[in-house]
Design goal:
The complex is a heterodimer of chains A (293) and B (308).
Chain A (H helix, E strand, L loop, with lengths): L2 H40 L3 H6 L12 H8 L11 H31 L5 H10 L6 H13 L6 H25 L3 H9 L4 H9 L4 H17 L2 H6 L7 H10 L7 H34 L3
Helix pairs in contact in A: 1-13, 3-13, 4-7, 4-10, 5-7, 7-10, 10-13, 12-13
Chain B lengths: L5 H48 L16 H6 L3 H32 L6 H9 L6 H11 L6 H7 L16 H26 L3 H9 L4 H12 L1 H17 L2 H6 L11 H11 L3 H31 L1
The chains are: A mainly alpha (293), B mainly alpha (308).
Chain lengths: 293, 308
């Protein structure tokens, strides 16, 4: 800690900080670029897109392509925009998230507080189910949905998302309840509280954070799903992601990049909104979904 | 009478309680049973069903007559399956390496007591909230040969700049790497950042007092301590790479030709558009085996560590 070395390190430290901040800002700009281009393109006219520069701000911003994407763009044979598909996704996401979260909470509760011989095996099997490539269940699921008349219906997709979301929701609640003190449960049992009463009165009131994490995780995953949507639905019953892909990859007529981008923004808005409002919980869910046990 | 009366009362209560007890001990299992049954049937039962189909001659519809390994011979004689495997290898290796290098770099930069961390962190992470279809759509436009990056560079004065990877058979797979890394590297950054924050500051302080330069501290002490995070990151990314489907469909549609075919797109097209259900099932079984080889040892070690 001699004086000269101190001044030298202070000088070099300032340079280092400058380099660090510059690097971070450049990287942040790169990460933001696709979103920026997506947004600015959606406000431009086709003429401006063809004649101008991708990175330039729109000369006279207009919402025309947003309205067109929402209500008029042609997807498949119909030209009613993406609004119907947007609602399809909502109708699919809300029940699927609710059901899978409730079941996950109850499963997590049983697997931590009402253990029985073999509970580890049960959990292990449910946990592995989170990671299977869904291609391995696609054909049988398509058959079964067909047999029960649920092919190409929103309720069919809700069912599929509940089934393949259960592993994650169970995992989230199990890990959370694992840390919940057993003494409180035992005390409640002594007082004569039953299975549901303990859950309702003791565990649930302190489950706020994990419910938020689970709901966000499930919402994001189900809203963003494409594989199940494209496999088990078609035409007017498709969810948003499938409709967006159909819109963007259709090769008939003039390619309207601004409408494509506006539709993409619509598809991105719900999950981006959740991320901006509750990013902390979003990250926690991702971590819990990645680092197991 | 007074001596007899309590007797039926007691027995009645006892039997009621034992019934209630029995229900009480069964109730947790009854609550768990539907979920477990659903998992057994719709995950494990369906996997067996798919495995069974891979040993048949099913085409547009399932045929339940076993014919042995025909579909597997067929699968491994398809040039496009080799293409899919090769692409998965290229994509997987580059995707995992770049995500880790970029994620770790940003995490280390962010760990230098950055003032605007709360602003920067969400910027690196937001792509993870987007659907792969949205990511694919955005990058398809960004890399558009003619109107995208190429034109921007021309406008900036770099007239000879050429960027046609999206329609270039040899380069298209790298556009998937670019978009994939953009989407997932922020998440890997968050994992490393959490790992860095968990390291005991005392060790680093001791090394600093010994006069070790910062770079050496990272290389010799901090990065080796992040080993578990590396392992988790590799597993998560490998798992995502094998499952990647939406991104390819939205960005290149598997093309040009079959230049960006992956096992996931192969499985889908053989099963649902080419009516080769047995071959499609065989490819799904291959994917499952790949994921199992990665995930099972990992889950096993994670669950075991927790126990001890």
């Amino acid at each position: 800690m001699s004086a000269p070395s101190d001044t030298v390190s202070a000088g070099s430290a300032r340079t280092t900080r400058l380099v660090i901040y510059t690097l971070l800002l450049v990287l942040a700009a790169i990460y933001l670029l696709p979103l920026y281009v997506m947004l600015t393109t959606s406000f431009k006219s086709l003429a401006e897109i063809r004649g101008g520069d991708m990175l330039a701000l729109p000369r006279d911003p207009s919402l025309d392509s947003w309205f067109k994407a929402w209500g008029e763009a042609c997807i498949g044979v119909t030209c009613e925009g993406i609004k119907g598909y947007f609602w399809n996704s909502i109708k699919m996401v809300v029940p699927a998230v609710l059901i899978s979260t409730v079941l996950g909470a109850l499963n997590g509760y049983v697997l931590t507080k009402w253990r029985f011989p073999g509970h580890k095996l049960v959990f292990g099997l449910m946990l592995f189910a989170c990671f299977i490539p869904f291609q391995a269940v696609l054909i049988p699921m398509a058959r079964v949905l067909g047999i029960f008349g649920m092919a190409n219906t929103t309720s069919g997709l809700v069912f599929v998302h509940v089934v393949y979301g259960l592993g994650f929701t169970t995992l989230f609640f199990r890990n959370y309840y694992e840390a919940f003190p057993d003494e409180l449960i035992k005390a409640a049992m002594m007082d004569g509280a039953g299975f549901f009463k303990i859950f309702w009165r003791i565990l649930l009131p302190s489950s706020g954070p994990i419910i938020v994490v689970t709901v966000i995780y499930q919402f994001t995953n189900i809203w963003n799903d494409f594989l199940f949507g494209v496999s088990f639905s078609s035409g007017a019953e498709s969810p948003m992601t499938v409709a967006l892909n159909n819109l963007v990859s259709s090769s008939t007529g003039v390619k309207e990049y601004n409408v494509d981008m506006a539709a993409a923004v619509f598809a991105a808005l719900p999950t981006l909104f959740v991320y901006i409002v509750a990013g902390r919980y979003f990250v926690r869910g991702l971590m819990a979904g990645a680092v197991k046990g | 009478m007074t001596t007899i009366e309590p007797v039926p009362y007691v027995t009645e209560q006892r039997s009621r309680r034992s019934y209630k007890d029995r229900l009480g001990t069964l109730l947790p299992k009854i609550v768990l049973a539907p979920s477990f049954a659903i998992t057994l049937v719709f995950v494990y039962g369906f996997i067996l069903w798919t495995v069974y189909l891979s040993f048949t001659r099913s085409r547009i519809l399932p045929i339940y007559e076993l014919v042995g390994f025909d579909a597997y011979y067929n699968l491994w004689s398809q040039p496009s399956w080799y293409m899919a495997i090769k692409n998965l290898a290229i994509f997987g290796v580059l995707y995992i390496s770049f995500c880790i290098v970029i994620g770790l770099t940003i995490a280390i930069l962010m760990d230098q007591r950055i003032r605007a961390e709360g602003v920067l962190r969400p910027i690196f992470l937001y792509p993870m909230a987007l659907s792969f279809v949205v990511t694919g759509t955005a990058w398809k436009w960004f890399l558009n040969p003619g109107l995208g990056l190429e034109k921007t560079m021309h406008n900036l004065g770099w007239e000879s700049f050429k960027f046609d990877w999206l329609i270039n058979t040899d380069m298209a797979i790298y556009t998937i790497v670019i978009a994939g890394v953009w989407q997932a590297s922020g998440f890997i950054m968050a994992m490393f950042l959490a790992g860095l924050r968990g390291i005991d500051g005392e060790i680093i302080k001791a090394a600093q007092i010994d006069g070790a330069p910062t770079f050496a501290i990272y290389r010799r002490i901090i990065i080796p301590m992040l080993r578990p995070v590396f392992l988790s990151a590799i597993i998560v990314l490998a798992h995502m790479a094998i499952k990647s489907y939406d991104l390819v469909i939205a960005l290149t549609g598997g093309g040009p030709g079959n230049a960006t075919e992956l096992p996931s797109t192969f499985m889908y097209s053989y099963t649902f558009t080419r009516s080769q259900m047995a071959v499609g099932s065989a490819s799904a079984v291959m994917m499952l085996m790949g994921i199992t080889a990665i995930i099972v040892p990992y889950l096993y070690s994670e669950l075991r560590e927790k126990r001890s």
